Amino acid sequence: MNQFRFSRRPDIGDKVRVSFEFFPPKTDEMEARLWETVTRLEPLKPKFVSVTYGAGGSTRERTARTVKRILTETGIPAAAHLTCVGATRDEVDAVIQDYKSIGINRFVA
Known about the structure:
Elements: E1 19-22, H1 28-41, E2 48-51, H2 60-73, E3 78-81, H3 89-101, E4 107-108
Parallel strand pairs: 1-2, 2-3, 3-4
């Protein structure tokens, strides 16, 4: 059984934490722009970044490639989105296992 950890709700006066969400790039030019953005945001020390996952898994490979690059080339924790609508539990488990096999261990569903 999977266990999830939830962070406590911040109290007034706690440090504000932010995350950023990206769309996986469709072209080489878009990838260059995305990477420029990621490197400009890295000094802000976001809590994490996430990369979307198209309906029906339409961007699955690009999502995986983008998250893997962020994990490999920056110090930013990164998460991959999962779209579970219309997918069986076995299909979702298979996607998670594929992602985990390349080092992706954080997910947004």
